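Good morning C.,

I know you're traveling, so I'll keep this short. The sequence:
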Amino acid sequence: MAAPDPHPTRSVTSPAPRAERPTLSARVTAIGPGVIVSGDVSAAEHLIVEGEVEGTIVLPDHGVAISGSGQVRGDVCARTVTVLGRVDGTVTASALIELRASAVVTGRLSAPLLSMEEGARFRGHVDPTRADAALAVARHRLAPATDPDPVDT
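The tokens, ready to paste straight into the viewer:
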């Protein structure tokens, strides 16, 4: 009888190569939990508010998320708005407004789609028809000013 091999051989096959994960080109800016912003905020990327904003947030082509610790006293205008914290003002989105269970919102909501989780608190008005007009005005205000009739010097 032959002695068992102390180092048996196993055939191992390598797993099929994984497809590369797509890289996200979207960038995100955050207003941290210890930051208080007084004034208007605009950006060419997504925004997470963990601190406080007293003023207007305008990101017509991007998303805004107000975290559980975030507070906004003013208007928010974006493609999508997700609220977990507190907002006192008008929230306008061209695509979707989400009020998560911890959200406390007082004011006006305007978006074609509204999602409100059980537990979210909202006091105000909902108007799904004014989102497009409000976003058009926001884009216009963000456009760089150009002089239509420059004076030659």
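Safe travels,
E.
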